[in-house]
Write a structure and sequence with these properties.
The protein is an alpha/beta fold. It folds into 2 domains: 160 residues, Rossmann fold (3-Layer(aba) Sandwich), CATH 3.40.50.300; 63 residues. The strands form 2 sheets. It has a 6-stranded mixed beta sheet, sandwiched between helices.
């Protein structure tokens, strides 16, 4: 894996004549986990798509780039809000889809190991229609983890999971994505309080940073510092 760069975005995004967000200046530090919160429609997912090169009709008057100046293409793994599983493929085949699309031989043993880590070792042969929503989301997470990209973009990656499974997947992701540059869009202040090394809130008024605790993530759910940050984030979101 190549060194993980920082991410920089500066400017205003529009669809036609409508402003999606901006002007803003955002930085996700190299090798750290940045959480981005904000109300629906603020433009959080659009920021991820701009970094992924999948912005479609969105025009950015500014820049979205890596700090090392090299193109981001080929260095980014994106987990979208929808699981985007191929319905005709098994869970295992969906996890190895990236390699197959690149014309490479999939590492099926490693894919099985990743599926086991997300708690789906007994479901590798099942197609998406035989899985629950939470199981499908974990397959999508396993596919993202399989990519081993230096930059990882996550859009509500744990939203379909129950509280116990969500905490477990947060812990696993923090472990396996350590040292990568992660930009994580979430609506959950508790999640940002556990995982964020940098925590940002995007609203119509712009972008603001909230200082996280000094202790390294994933932070204990019931730690005083975690709960205090969760409360601060809730208050800021209520004011947005």
């Amino acid at each position: 894996m190549s060194a993980a760069p920082a991410l920089h975005l500066s400017g205003t995004a529009r669809i036609g004549g409508t402003i999606v967000f901006g002007p803003v200046s955002l930085e996700a530090p190299a090798g750290q986990w940045t959480c981005l919160l904000g109300p629906s429609g603020a433009g959080k997912s659009t920021i991820l798509r701009l970094f992924a090169g999948l912005a479609g009709e969105v025009a950015l008057e500014g820049t979205a780039e890596a700090s090392d100046g090299a193109p981001l293409a080929g260095r980014v793994a994106l987990m979208a809000q929808d699981d985007l599983l191929m319905p005709w493929l098994s869970a295992l085949e969906n996890v190895t889809l990236g390699a197959r699309l690149r014309g490479l031989r999939p590492d099926r043993d490693r894919a099985r190991a990743v599926l086991a880590r997300v708690g789906l070792d007994g479901h590798a042969a099942k197609r998406p229609d035989a899985l629950s929503g939470g199981q499908r989301q974990r397959v999508a997470l396993a596919r993202t983890l399989m990519e081993e990209r230096p930059v990882v973009l996550l859009d509500e990656p744990f939203s379909a999971l129950d509280a116990r499974t969500r905490a477990g997947m947060q812990d696993l992701s923090a472990e396996l994505l350590s040292g990568r540059t992660v930009l994580h869009v979430t609506h959950d202040p508790a999640e940002a309080a556990r995982l964020g090394q940098r925590v940002l809130i995007l609203t119509e008024a712009g972008l603001s940073a909230i200082a996280p605790p000094e202790c390294a993530p994933p932070r204990p759910i019931d730690a005083a510092a975690t709960l205090a940050l969760q409360g601060r984030l809730h208050r800021r979101l209520m004011e947005a």
